[in-house]
Specification:
111 residues; mainly alpha; 2 strands
């Protein structure tokens, strides 16, 4: 076996490992799998591990910070920031004198 054949065989074995690994991923990684398989040149197994580990780290950081789904946030956050006018002065809905930060301070209002 010559050196060129050895290199080609090594690449073929690595490609097989890559496809087997990507096939075994959970469905939550489908977008990344599609992205990797759609590349013109298939990354090495090491690069794929790095990409997936980065994605997993990013997801765990987002969960630790308590990020929510933006769709549910948009649905539940309606109305609070709408500005209305009363006697020519702007105010926010649900902003009353007893919940005013400027008058009582943040700590007292949030109790």
């Amino acid at each position: 076996m010559c050196k060129a054949d050895s290199i080609a065989y090594t690449r073929l074995v690595e490609r097989g490992k890559i496809f087997k690994f990507l096939h075994g991923l959970n469905s939550e990684y489908d977008p990344i799998r599609v992205q990797l398989l759609g590349k013109e040149k298939l990354p090495s197994l090491f690069e794929i591990f790095f990409i997936l580990r980065s994605e997993e780290t990013q997801r765990s950081v987002m969960l630790d910070k308590g990020c929510f789904n933006t769709r549910s946030t948009m649905v539940t956050g309606k109305g609070f920031t709408k500005i209305s006018t009363s006697k020519g002065k702007p105010f926010r809905k649900r902003h009353t004198k007893d919940t005013c930060y400027k008058l009582y301070g943040k700590e007292k209002v949030l109790k």
